[in-house]
Amino acid sequence: MDCDFGLVAFDMDGVLVDYTSSWTWVHEHFRVNNEASLIDYIEGRIDDLEFMRRDIELWMALKEDVSVHDIDEILRPVPIIPGIKDTVSALHQRGVRCVIVSGGLDMAARRIAEENGFDDHIANSLACDDRGRLTGEGVLRVELTNKRRALQRFQESFGVSEERTVAIGNSFVDVSMFGASGLSIAFNPIDDEVQRNADVVLRSRNLTDVLPLILGR
After folding, report:
1. Fewer CB atoms inside 10 A, N or C side of the chain?
2. Mean pLDDT of 39-57
3. Count of alpha carbons within 13 Å of 121, Cβ hemisphere only?
4. pLDDT at 81 over 80
5. Is the pTM of this model over 0.90?
């Protein structure tokens, strides 16, 4: 039996990744802090590209010739929320497409997508030279304050309306996705704004707990 919904968009950091941010995971590895840049971004003094540029510069200042492979290896042990594969499988059985929409790092998103059977993913990346070394620039695919735009690409490619879309996120940057969905779920929310704008607030240590909300309608 088909589901009322045709597409579920999952945020990655804090939802699929059991950690605040894949970017922060790398910062922790290098023992650097981007709090000043984060404040500048939130208060509108810098844009997404400059925000990424400043983060990458922190790493490059500590390791000469840091490469995409280095970052991929750093991200490999990032903790993952239990139940991802079972959730995607159950949704697929009901004809629902599953995608990742993240402002995090695409090497983590790609690995999670491939290992758990997601239909597609979109996340931000790191520019590198022909030897794989970071250039210091980011590759912007998902604007943090406009994740709705990235979600709409999947809605168009899969032919699914906003009303038949579910968006799952944990922070204020996911609210724009909520506005383009028929059901919005704040999963282990970390701020008041995402809770206020969600249809459902869910606190759980297993992703499969979203299934009754999506399939039980």
Report:
1. N
2. 96
3. 25
4. yes
5. yes
Q: What is the pLDDT of residues 180-193, one digit of tens each?
A: 999 999 999 999 99
Give the pLDDT confidence score for residue 217 in this predicted structure.
53
Tokens standing for 205?
A: 């240590």
CATH 3.40.140.20 applies to domain 7-24+77-215: no
Question: How many CB atoms are closer than 10 A to CB 22?
Answer: 26
Domain limits, the chain: 7-24+77-215
Choice between 207 and 145, residue whose per-residue pLDDT is larger: 207
Q: List beta partners, residue 13.
A: 17
CA distance 207 to 87: 7
For residue 61, give Cα distances in angstroms to 37, 57, 136, 141, 176.
16, 6, 10, 25, 34
Measured CA to CA, the distance from residue 162 to residue 180 in angstroms comes to: 5
Average pLDDT value over all residues in the chain:
96
Q: Helix %, strand %, coil % for the chain, to 5?
A: 45, 20, 35
Is-contact 170 186, C-beta < 8 A?
A: yes
